[in-house]
Amino acid sequence: MYHIELRQSMHNTCHFNLTEQELFDKVVGAWAQGQWIEAGERKWNPHQARLTVLEGPRLPVEQLSMGRGWRNARRQGEDVTERVVAQAKRASQPGVASQAAVAAAAGDPTEQLLPLLGSDPAALLAAWRLSAERRPELAPSASLALAETALHSLDVSPD
User: Fold this and answer.
1) What is the pTM of this model?
2) For a tag on the chain, would you pick the N or C end, based on fewer CB atoms within 10 A?
3) Concatenated DSSP letters for 113-145?
């Protein structure tokens, strides 16, 4: 579950127990594109307000009452703001949505990814898998970045 806080000056609003789909559809998708969002009877400008996204367990109503919701969400959750906003930015880039639709319609996920992995997809895929095995605590995107860095550092071809 996701919990969000929007804050600007002395104004703030919190929303709790959002699914990933709700988070991206209602908040993070527009936020990542620099668009205003409406939440808590206000409109929030991403250039002026601050968004905090926490991932954690579902909070029951008794943990949300008496203004204790955000404190409980922070205590039990993890701040994933940077990760989800970066993910939404990547998803909003031209061509990413159409590539995802093509991949979803095809069969094997590995075969779907290969064309997206650059000029030497097999090497990057192998490095990505190795990175994920050796560093299982990393998110898939971080494992991919580590694999790209490793391959780039091994590249000795002249520019």
Assistant:
1) 0.57
2) C
3) HGGGG-S-HHHHHHHHHHHHHH-TTS-HHHHHH
